[in-house]
Every structure is written in C-alpha cells, then in structure tokens.
C-alpha cells in the first residue's frame, strides 16, 4: 500500500481558448480520510475530479492512485475509484438492481449479490430494487448513483456535489452512509456547496479558486488558525450610526441599531474587548447583553475567496 491513497502533482488543464481550468495543482489524499474540496462555481473542482477519474485529459502533471500511475496502468488505477458525478447518467428504463449490477460487471468483477444487497440496504434502496428508475424521486435516483459508484468496491470514492437538490432528511441519511464507508476504510473526496457538511464531516479541507489550490489544512487547525471570534452586544438603546469614539475597533451595527458587532482574534495578546467596553461606557452607550461565537468554516471560506479575488484584481 502506498503512503497516500491519491497523489496529484503539477496537474494542469488548459483549453484552446487560453482558459486555464487548473494551474499546477499538487495534492495528497491520505488513506481513509474524508477530504472536502471547496470553491465557487467554475473554480476547477469538477475539472480536477474528472481528470483523476479519466473523463478529461490533463494538459500536464500526473496522478498516482495508491502508487499506481493513472495513465500507465489505467485499468488498475481506475478500478480503485468510484465516482458520483453531479449530473444523472443512468438509464431511466432499467430496474435499480440491473443498473447497479451492470456497473460492477463493467469492471470485470465476479458476481457478488450479497455485497450489492448490502449496498442497496445501506442506501435504503433494497425495497426499490425492482423499480424502474424513471419511477423514482430525484433523491432516490441520487442514491442509485451512489450505489453504482460503490458496486465495484472502490477504495476511493469521489462525491461531486452529492446532496445537491435533495431534502434535509435524505441528506442526513447519505452522510450517515459516508461515515460508514469511512469506518470501513474507504477514502472519501467530496465537493459541496453545503459548507456545514464539510465542517461536520471532513478531516481536512482544501480551497480551490480560479484553478489554483490556495489552501489545504486540517479542519480543526484551519478553524484554530483562521477562525475569528465575534462579539455581539445587545444595546439598551438603538444607535443611528457607530459613534466616532468607537472607530478604532471598527464595529458594525445591525438589527435597526440595536446590535453592535465586533470581530477579534482570540489568539491575539490583546483582544480589544476591555478597551471597547470602556470606550462605550465613556460614550454613554449601555448594553443589555453580550455573547461571542467562533466564526464558522463558511466565514473562513468566504474570506479566503474574497481575499484571493482582491489580490487577482490588484
């Protein structure tokens, strides 16, 4: 077994138009981890996945799948990978069982009805195994897509926006399935617009923007290093604007002037909170209550993208 489940080196994708979808991406994915790849639309997430899965040709670079070069030994490398794409690509006139079984046959694997039965049961599809796909709801079809991707028992599973368009209940059931897969040793790489999912599920987070991987970090470490705390002060009387006496702290007003918000670095030697409260007292601004919260992964992500775009424009 190689040190990493997936090793990507200098991966590039450029089109004849001159557009660079990927700009020399380097990335290692560990065995058995859940890695969340975040980025806005058009950032390069799907391009990266499509190249690794052999659906799109790279302009340059290489990929090793558990140490196996993904071009030199394509069949061996591809056998290790399962993909759940964004778009539905299933024959809607086939029964669920036939669709999943055929996906296994495509990889030349021997028949294993017990394994496929367990996959369908884990995805709450067993009772639908004889149903024609066109009769299923959108959420059920999404489950079939996951079952197809798991049919050949891959060691690495790519989930490209797997819960887009499904309801909250189904989303929770799908993520329970992801947890079970990770417990069995499957490596999961996911893209998602539901950042709370990445915050809850991922071991590590990567942020890609304009074809560049701008950050890869342990989720907990990312929250520790980049997360800021936010102080909310509920005022006794509304303010029309932030008084000049508080300008040094650059607080903001909300809730019709009844909430004053101040962001601070919790790791800083001085947070500025005591001096802010003192300045408020001197200015005659009373508050009824206060609370603090840690910034979320979404706050961090939005800030990274905003800063990256600002640097590009500069």
Offer a concise description of the structure.
By secondary structure, this protein is α/β, with parallel strands linked by helices. It has helices spanning 45-52, 74-79, 96-106, 113-122, 138-150, 168-183, 195-201, 219-226, 273-282, 297-313, and strands at residues 4-14, 20-30, 34-38, 60-65, 68-69, 81-84, 156-160, 187-191, 204-209, 212-218, 229-235, 252-254, 259-264, 287-294. Among the domains are: 4-80 and 154-224, P-loop containing nucleotide triphosphate hydrolases (Rossmann fold, 3-Layer(aba) Sandwich); 228-294, Alpha-L RNA-binding motif (Alpha-Beta Plaits, 2-Layer Sandwich).
Report on the architecture of this protein.
This protein has helices at residues 45-52, 74-79, 96-106, 113-122, 138-150, 168-183, 195-201, 219-226, 273-282, 297-313, and strands at residues 4-14, 20-30, 34-38, 60-65, 68-69, 81-84, 156-160, 187-191, 204-209, 212-218, 229-235, 252-254, 259-264, 287-294. It is of the alpha/beta class. Among the domains are: 4-80 and 154-224, P-loop containing nucleotide triphosphate hydrolases (Rossmann fold, 3-Layer(aba) Sandwich); 228-294, Alpha-Beta Plaits, CATH 3.30.70.1560. It has a six-stranded mixed sheet with strand order 6-7-8-3-9-10, sandwiched between helices. A four-stranded antiparallel sheet has the order 2-1-4-5. A hairpin with a 4-residue loop joins strand 12 and strand 13 (259-264). The radius of gyration is 24 Å and the shape is elongated. The model has no long low-confidence stretch (mean pLDDT 88). GO terms for molecular function: ATP binding. Keywords: ATP-binding, Nucleotide-binding, Transport. Residues 6-235 form the ABC transporter domain. This is ABC transporter ATP-binding protein.
């Amino acid at each position: 077994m190689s040190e990493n489940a997936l090793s990507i080196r200098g991966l590039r994708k450029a089109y004849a138009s001159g557009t660079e979808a990927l700009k020399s991406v380097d990335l290692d994915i560990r065995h058995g981890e859940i890695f969340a790849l975040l980025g806005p639309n058009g950032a390069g997430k799907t391009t990266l996945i499509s190249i690794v899965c052999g659906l799109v040709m790279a302009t340059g670079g290489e990929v090793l799948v558990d140490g196996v070069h993904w071009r030199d030994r394509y069949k061996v490398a591809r056998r290790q990978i399962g993909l759940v794409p964004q778009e539905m690509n299933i024959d809607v006139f086939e029964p669920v069982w036939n669709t999943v079984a055929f996906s296994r046959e495509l990889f030349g694997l021997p028949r294993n009805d017990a394994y496929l039965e367990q996959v369908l049961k884990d995805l709450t599809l067993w009772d639908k195994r004889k149903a024609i796909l066109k009769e299923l709801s959108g959420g059920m079809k999404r489950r079939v897509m996951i079952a197809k991707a798991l049919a050949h028992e891959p060691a690495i599973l790519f989930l490209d926006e797997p819960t887009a368009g499904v309801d909250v209940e189904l989303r929770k059931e799908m993520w329970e399935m992801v947890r079970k897969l990770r417990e069995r040793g499957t490596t999961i790489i996911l893209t998602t617009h539901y950042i709370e999912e990445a915050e809850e599920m991922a071991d590590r987070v990567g942020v890609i923007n304009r074809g560049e991987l701008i950050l890869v970090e342990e989720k907990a470490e990312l929250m520790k290093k980049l997360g800021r705390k936010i102080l909310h002060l509920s005022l006794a009387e509304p303010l029309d604007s932030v008084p000049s006496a508080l300008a040094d702290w650059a607080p903001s007003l909300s809730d019709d002037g009844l909430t004053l918000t101040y962001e601070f670095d919790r790791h800083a030697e001085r947070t500025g909170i005591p001096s802010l409260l003192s300045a408020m007292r001197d200015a005659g601004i009373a508050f009824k209550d206060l609370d603090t919260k840690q910034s979320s992964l979404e706050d961090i992500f939005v800030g990274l993208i905003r800063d990256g775009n600002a640097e590009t424009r500069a």
